[in-house]
Write a structure and sequence with these properties.
The complex is a heterotrimer. In chain A, the strands form three sheets. A seven-stranded mixed sheet of chain A has the order 8-10-7-11-9-12-13. Chain A is of the alpha+beta class. The longest helix of chain A has 18 residues. The radius of gyration of chain A is 21 Å and the shape is globular. Chain A starts with 14 loop residues before the first helix and ends in a 12-residue tail after the last strand. Chain B is α+β, with helices and mostly antiparallel strands. Helix content of chain B is about 25%, strand content about 45%. Chain B contains two helices and five strands. The termini of chain B are far apart. A five-stranded parallel sheet of chain C has the order 2-1-7-8-9. A four-stranded parallel sheet of chain C has the order 4-3-5-6, sandwiched between helices. In chain C, strand 8, helix 10 and strand 9 form a beta-alpha-beta unit. In chain C, helix 1 runs parallel beside helix 10, helix 2 packs parallel to helix 15 and helix 5 packs parallel to helix 6. The two termini of chain C are about 35 Å apart. Chains in contact: A-B, A-C, B-C. Chains A and C meet through strand 13 of A and helix 2 and helix 15 of C.
Chain lengths: ~325, ~80, ~350
C-alpha cells in the first residue's frame, strides 16, 4: 500500500476498504473461519456450553511499556472467557479508525493482535472496519467479541463464593496502571515498570485440569483489586477480608503510588487473576499456579466469611482494619 | 496539605534534579533546599524538594518503616 | 510499637479523663483511617479531624470562579487532581471537562508552566490551593514565569495558612481541644516555632507529627505525657524533617510573591491573616486581576454540616446527609469529595450507613 494515512474512503466499503482488508488485515489473520470473508463466520460448535463476551478498547496512549492496544484487545477479551472457565477459540475484531491515523501505527497494532492471538490459540474469525472523520475518535478504537467452550467442570461465577473460601492472587498488582500512567501527558515520570498484559488462559487451564473445585475467578482490571473483591463480595453476599501484608506490590509500584498519592489497590492490572476456592484446596491451587510463569508469585491473600455480608475489608500492616471501598473513578495524582 | 515523599537524587543539573522513589524517576526542582547533591535524600512535594535529609534521618525513617507491624508485636 | 501502644494506655489512665487531640492535616486524617490506628487507641483518647484539608476549606465560590474561567475560549485550567471533583454551586471541573472545557490535571505547578510554554496560544490558569507546603511551589512558578516573561500563565490563588486558623479554633467556644497534632510537612516549611504562641497564649500542648502510623502514635503519647505533666510546649516528633526554623528559602520566595490577606474558610468564616494573595508586583500573573474574577461567597445548603465537621464539633455520622444524599459518588460538600475529607475517610473506612 503506497498510502501512509487512513482516509475516510478506507471506510467506504469500496476498493479502498478491500485494499485495507487484503493488504493489512487478511495476511495477518489467515484462518479457515475468516477465509470466505462473508458477513458472519460459520463455526462448527459441539454440544455443551459456550462463553461469549465483548469488550472495547480505547486506551491512550496506544503503545506503552509491555504492550499496546492491540495486545490488550486480545488479552482482555480472552481473559474474560478464561474467567468463566472457557477455552478461548474465536474472536471478532471491530476497528474504528480515525481519518489521518498513520498506517504504520495500524500495522504495528494489527501485528500485535496477531501475535497475541497466535500465542493463546484464538482465531480472528470475523471483523469490521470503519473510518470516521478526523477528530471524531482518538486515532483508533477496537472492539473484540470472544467465544469459547466452557471446560470447567463446575460453574465459575461471581455469585459462587462461599464462606471459608480462600482468596488467591496470581502475582504483583499495579504494574499495568502505573506503566500506562507514566506515558500520559502532564504527569511525566519515568519508570521501568512494564504492563503485565497477558493472556491468562494457559495458566487457568492448568488449574482447571487438576479437577479441583474452583468457585470463581476474576481478573482485577479497571478499578483494580478493590473493585474486583467488592464486586465478588456483593455478588456472593459474603464478607471478604484481605491481609495487607500478603499483597504483592513491587517497590517501584509503591514508589509511584507514594509519589503520586495513588492507592495500589485501585490500579488496573491486565495479566493477573483472583481465584476463589474452598480453603482446603487453596495450597494445592497456589502450587499449581506457581509452576506457571504467569503465576510464579501466586499466594493466598485472604478469605471469605459469612459476614459482614457484601463487604470487603483489609487487615492493615499495623493490625488495624479498614473497609476496601469501590473506587469511585479515575486514579488522580494528588498532592494532599 | 501534606503528601511528600522521601526521594534519592540520582541526577543533578543546576537546580533540576532527577530523583528516584524506589526506582520511579522524575525531575524535581531543588532550588528550595541548600546544596543538594547526588546521593542525597530529599523530601519531595508537588515536584519540588522542600527538605534535605542527612544519613541519620534516612536511617530513622527506614527503622520506622521496618517497625510498623504492631499485630505481631501485640500477639 | 507494642511499647508505644501500652505507654499510650498507661498515660491515658494517669490522665483519668477523656482528652481530645486535633490533627489539622488531611494526610494525618487519611493515615489514621487507612491504618486503622484509632482502633489501637484507648477509649479516652479521641482523635478529632480539624480543617486540615485545603480542598475542604476552599469556597464553593472559588470552584465557581475556576469553572467560569475554563468556559472561556483559549483558556486551559491546570489543576491538582484533588480539585477535579469538588462541587461548585452547579457544576464541577470534572463535569466541565466532560462538556469540552480544557481542564488538565498536573502533578506539579512546574508542569503547568511547561504547559504554558508548549501551548503559547492557550492562556493557562493554574489553581493555586494548598497550605504552606504547597504555596512556595506556586510562588516559584510565578517567580519563574515573571523571570522568563511568560505571557500566557497566571494563578487563581486561594492559598491559606495555618496559625490564624488554629487560633480561631481555640477561640471558638464550642470547640474543645486538649492538644494539637501539628501538620508535619507544613512545618517543614514554616518551622515548628510557628506554634509557640498556641502554647504560650492558650496553654495547649503541640506535637509536630510525621506520617507513618508509628509517628502519629508517638505524637499522641508525647501529647499525653504533656497533659499528665501539666506542660504546654511545642515538641517535634517528626525530627527527621522538621526543625525550629523551617525552610527559610521557601518562606523568602513566598514573601516575595505573596502577601497576607483575610481568607474565607468554609464553615468557619473569614479569618484575618489566614490567606495569601499575589502581590501587586506580580499582578499580571494573578488570574483574579487578569480576568476580573470576583470570588463570590457562595450559598451553602443549611443541611450540609461540613463546617461543623471541620471545626470538630460533630462527626460525619451526625450529619443528616451523610451516607444518604451525600456519598463519594454524589458528594454534597467538599468534606466528602476530597479523598482527604473527614466524611470521605469516614465513608470509606468506617462505613456505618444508617
Amino acid at each position: 500500500m503506497k498510502r501512509d494515512r487512513i482516509l475516510l474512503a478506507h471506510g467506504g466499503g469500496g476498493s479502498l476498504t478491500r485494499e485495507l482488508i487484503t493488504e493489512i488485515l487478511e495476511p495477518e489473520f489467515e484462518n479457515p473461519a475468516l477465509k470466505p470473508l462473508d458477513d458472519s463466520a460459520i463455526l462448527a460448535l459441539h454440544d455443551g456450553e459456550f462463553a461469549f463476551t465483548t469488550d472495547s478498547y480505547v486506551v491512550k496512549p496506544f503503545f506503552f511499556p509491555g504492550g499496546d492496544i492491540g495486545k490488550l484487545a486480545v488479552c482482555g477479551t480472552v481473559n474474560d472467557l478464561a474467567m468463566q472457565g472457557a477455552e478461548p477459540q474465536w474472536l471478532s475484531l471491530g476497528l474504528i479508525l480515525e481519518e489521518g491515523l498513520a498506517i504504520s501505527d495500524l500495522r504495528k497494532i494489527v501485528r500485535s493482535i496477531h501475535a497475541a492471538a497466535e500465542e493463546v490459540g484464538v482465531q480472528i474469525a470475523t471483523g469490521d472496519t470503519k473510518v470516521v472523520e478526523r477528530g471524531k475518535c482518538e486515532g483508533l478504537y477496537i472492539n473484540t467479541a470472544g467465544l469459547g467452550r466452557v471446560v470447567a467442570k463446575n460453574r465459575l461465577a461471581s455469585a459462587n463464593v462461599k464462606p471459608g473460601d480462600a482468596v488467591i492472587l496470581s502475582g504483583y498488582i499495579g504494574d499495568h496502571g502505573v506503566a500506562v500512567m507514566s506515558q500520559r501527558e502532564g504527569i511525566s515520570f519515568a519508570t521501568s515498570v512494564v504492563s503485565d498484559c497477558a493472556a491468562l488462559w494457559p495458566m487457568v487451564k492448568t488449574i482447571l485440569e487438576t479437577g479441583m473445585e474452583i468457585h470463581a475467578m476474576r481478573d482485577p482490571t479497571r478499578g483494580g483489586l478493590a473493585a474486583a473483591v467488592c464486586d465478588i463480595a456483593a455478588a456472593s453476599a459474603v464478607g471478604i477480608k484481605l491481609d495487607e501484608k500478603a499483597l504483592p506490590i513491587s517497590r517501584e509500584v509503591r514508589g509511584a503510588c507514594d509519589l503520586l498519592g495513588l492507592d495500589p489497590l485501585t490500579i488496573a492490572n491486565e495479566g493477573k487473576v483472583l481465584v476463589f476456592c474452598p480453603g482446603e484446596v487453596a495450597e494445592r491451587v497456589v502450587s499449581v499456579m506457581s509452576r506457571h510463569p504467569l503465576g510464579q508469585h501466586a499466594r493466598i491473600i485472604g478469605g471469605a466469611s459469612a459476614g459482614p455480608k457484601g463487604m470487603a475489608l483489609l487487615r492493615t500492616t499495623i493490625g488495624g482494619e479498614r473497609i476496601i471501598d469501590m473506587p469511585t473513578g479515575e486514579d488522580l495524582p494528588r498532592i494532599c | 496539605m501534606c503528601l511528600a515523599v522521601p526521594a534519592l537524587i540520582v541526577g543533578l543539573n543546576g537546580t533540576t534534579a532527577t530523583i528516584s522513589v524506589d526506582g520511579v524517576m522524575r525531575e524535581v526542582d531543588v532550588s528550595l533546599v541548600d546544596e543538594a547533591r547526588l546521593g542525597d535524600y530529599v523530601l519531595v512535594h508537588a515536584g519540588f524538594a522542600i527538605h534535605k535529609w542527612d544519613k541519620s534521618e534516612v536511617e530513622q525513617w527506614e527503622a520506622i518503616r521496618a517497625n510498623t507491624d504492631l499485630r505481631e508485636a501485640l500477639a | 510499637m507494642k511499647t508505644l501502644v501500652q505507654s499510650i494506655r498507661r498515660l491515658s489512665e494517669r490522665v483519668g479523663h477523656e482528652v481530645r487531640f486535633m490533627e489539622v492535616c488531611g494526610t494525618h486524617t487519611m493515615v489514621a483511617f487507612r491504618t486503622g490506628l484509632r482502633q489501637l487507641l484507648p477509649p479516652d483518647v479521641r482523635l478529632i479531624s480539624g480543617p486540615g484539608c485545603p480542598v475542604c476549606v476552599t469556597d464553593t465560590g472559588y470552584i465557581d470562579a475556576a469553572i467560569g474561567l475554563c468556559r472561556q475560549p483559549a483558556v486551559t485550567v491546570a489543576t491538582f487532581g484533588d480539585l477535579l471533583r469538588v462541587p461548585g454551586s452547579e457544576s464541577s471541573l470534572e463535569r466541565e471537562r466532560a462538556a469540552g472545557a480544557n481542564v488538565r490535571i498536573v502533578y506539579s505547578p512546574s508542569d503547568a508552566l511547561v504547559l504554558a510554554r508548549e501551548c503559547p496560544t492557550q492562556r493557562v490558569v493554574f489553581l493555586g490551593v494548598g497550605f504552606e507546603t504547597t504555596a512556595p511551589t506556586v510562588a516559584w512558578a510565578i517567580f519563574r514565569a515573571a523571570r522568563d516573561g511568560l505571557k500566557n500563565f497566571s494563578v487563581l490563588c486561594a492559598h491559606k495558612t495555618m496559625p490564624h486558623a488554629m487560633e480561631a479554633l481555640l477561640k471558638d467556644q464550642e470547640v474543645r481541644i486538649d492538644g494539637f497534632i501539628c501538620p508535619g510537612h507544613v512545618s517543614v516549611v514554616t518551622g515548628a516555632g510557628m506554634y509557640r504562641f498556641i502554647c504560650e497564649r492558650y496553654r495547649i500542648p503541640c506535637v509536630v507529627s510525621g506520617f507513618e502510623a508509628w509517628d502519629m502514635l508517638k505524637s499522641i503519647s508525647m501529647l499525653l505525657a504533656q497533659v499528665v505533666e501539666g506542660r504546654a510546649e511545642v515538641e517535634i516528633e517528626y525530627s527527621r524533617s522538621v526543625t525550629e526554623m523551617g525552610n527559610v528559602a521557601a518562606r523568602k520566595l513566598m514573601a516575595e510573591v505573596f502577601e497576607e490577606c483575610g481568607a474565607n474558610w468554609r464553615g468557619i468564616g473569614t479569618i484575618h491573616g489566614s490567606g495569601l494573595e499575589i502581590r501587586q508586583k506580580y499582578a499580571v500573573y494573578d488570574a483574579a486581576r487578569v480576568y476580573g474574577v470576583h470570588v463570590a461567597e457562595a450559598h451553602v445548603n443549611p443541611a450540609c454540616r461540613c463546617g461543623d465537621v471541620l471545626r470538630g464539633t460533630v462527626t460525619p455520622l451526625e450529619c443528616k446527609l451523610f451516607g444518604r444524599t451525600c456519598t463519594p459518588i454524589q458528594p454534597f460538600g467538599p468534606c466528602m469529595v476530597s479523598s482527604e475529607g473527614t466524611c470521605a475517610a469516614y465513608y470509606k473506612y468506617e462505613k456505618r450507613a444508617a
